[in-house]
DNA sequence: TTGATATTTCTAGAATTATGGAATCGAAAG
DNA sequence: CTTTCGATTCCATAATTCTAGAAATATCAA
């Protein structure tokens, strides 16, 4: 991972509403949540939520897909894990750190995942 | 961890020079590096480096100690690990993710660590 | 005390980012 | 085809953050 994508990802997460949205999506799992639900739960106007979701998407931290009239956002676990790996890269001058931070939705309880 | 500290930490890392400095410190281990060395390696004037190091310190990501005329900065591994744990909290609605990202300098090869 | 070194604080201007209302777009339903 | 709903884009304003030179501070050596 290059520095630039990592900076974009970190910058995307370094904002109250975006961090809240991302965490809701991380907790929601691969099914994700529609933009409107996120705006309502976080308490920001739709235009602001859209602005922030665009930043997260641009940083590659979330994916988006249309489902009827809604646009569903979901956390990109690979991107998140990649970011954490980047931060701990070559940690402590080569100490065998448990640098394997990993959140793997594939381990989720059976529930026809997209 | 509350959202606010996490936002401060993420914001601190979301900047080219600060991310570079933090990664150098993560790789340097508990011994850390003096401000001047960081400024030189990264290629920014001392005043800018100082500004950025203050941000990292304020976010709790690095510690600082004076050693003669130099001020040595070192990564705070606990803070980093805490941040990563926060990001993956309740990942995937309770799936047993390997949320144990951990960089532990105590595992370092014998080398009288402070 | 004087001088050199390492770093920080102060400062203002430049650049970037956030906000939210209004207008617009796309999909579905009547 | 018109309406409604969910979401985005546009826009001007407000707020924050970055930059780097100059000045100040702290440490050590002579």
Major beta sheet summary of chain A = 3 strands, antiparallel
**Which structural class do you get from the secondary structure elements of chain A?**
alpha+beta
Mean pLDDT score of chain A: 86
Q: What is the assigned CATH homologous superfamily of chain A?
A: Winged helix-like DNA-binding domain superfamily/Winged helix DNA-binding domain
Q: Please tally the helical runs of chain A, counting DSSP H or I stretches of 4 or more residues.
A: 5
Write down the CATH topology of chain A: Arc Repressor Mutant, subunit A
Total strands of chain A: 3
CATH architecture of chain A: Orthogonal Bundle
Chain pair sharing the greatest interface: A-B, 42 and 42 residues
| Low-pLDDT regions of chain A | 109-114
Strand order across the largest sheet of chain A? 1-3-2
Oligomer: homodimer
| Helical fraction of chain A | 40-55%
Global shape of chain A: elongated
SSE series of chain A: HHEHHEEH
Kindly, what is the distance between the CA atoms of the first and last residues of chain A, rounded to a whole number of angstroms?
26 Å
């Amino acid at each position: 991972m290059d520095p630039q994508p990592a900076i974009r990802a970190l910058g995307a997460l370094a904002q109250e509403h975006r961090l809240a949205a991302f965490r809701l999506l991380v907790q929601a799992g691969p099914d994700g949540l529609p933009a409107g639900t996120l705006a309502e739960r976080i308490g920001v106007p739709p235009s602001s939520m859209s602005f922030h979701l665009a930043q997260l998407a641009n940083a590659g931290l979330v994916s988006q897909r249309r489902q009827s009239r809604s646009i569903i956002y979901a956390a990109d676990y690979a991107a998140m894990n990649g970011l954490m790996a980047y931060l701990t890269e070559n940690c402590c001058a080569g100490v065998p750190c448990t640098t394997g931070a990993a959140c793997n939705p594939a381990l989720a309880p059976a529930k026809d995942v997209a």
